[in-house]
Write a structure and sequence with these properties.
Largest sheet: none
Strand content: under 5%
Low-confidence stretches: none
């Protein structure tokens, strides 16, 4: 059985849906847990993925909500990224006969911007968590807070910006060739 591009894109669409649903659940879990903490502070020990932020909540409720906000923003941005991937795959805007088109170029720039924002908020969350630890507050590892990997996200955004520039030039060359013919 030959693996075709169309079949590969279908598999990627299914995988993107699975990841998207998981990221939506994670983002919703962070937001829901923050609201539950307002009503019942005892649940702070058992937040999403058992990340215990009870020491932070006892130290300052505002610091706790700032940390939850950063975690929620990162999770929501990841979900948005996969929404865009699903949208372009589902709408079948990949024209494999002419891959350099404005839709794909716009898609690459959009996901480059989103990955940059994910990296920025993750980096901010890591720095904020480090600052809280220096205050003497017991905090879980940033991996449990889903804030790790900021450098990878920033690296990925730069790579996508470069690919976006290549696609931009490809669209320009393709338009010039279309005008010549």
């Amino acid at each position: 059985m030959e693996v075709t591009t169309k079949r590969t894109l279908t598999v990627l669409l299914v995988l993107s849906w699975i990841i998207f649903v998981g990221l939506c659940i994670e983002a919703g879990g962070f937001i829901t847990n923050a609201f539950f903490a307002l009503v019942n502070p005892a649940v702070v020990k058992h937040l999403w993925h058992e990340a215990d932020l009870s020491a932070l909540y006892q130290h300052s409720m505002w610091y706790f909500f700032t940390e939850m906000l950063l975690m929620s923003v990162v999770a929501a941005l990841k979900a948005w990224l996969f929404y865009l991937i699903i949208k372009i795959l589902h709408d079948k805007k990949f024209n494999l006969a002419q891959p350099f088109n404005r839709e794909v170029r716009r898609f690459i720039f959009n996901i480059a911007c989103i990955t940059f924002m994910i990296g920025l908020f993750s980096w901010w969350g890591v720095k904020y968590t480090g600052w809280l630890i220096r205050l003497g507050i017991t905090m879980p590892d940033v991996q449990y807070l889903r804030l790790g990997g900021a450098d990878v996200w920033l690296f990925m955004s730069v790579t996508l910006f470069v690919i976006g520039q290549i696609f931009k030039r490809g669209v320009e060359i393709q338009a010039e060739n279309d005008l010549t013919i």
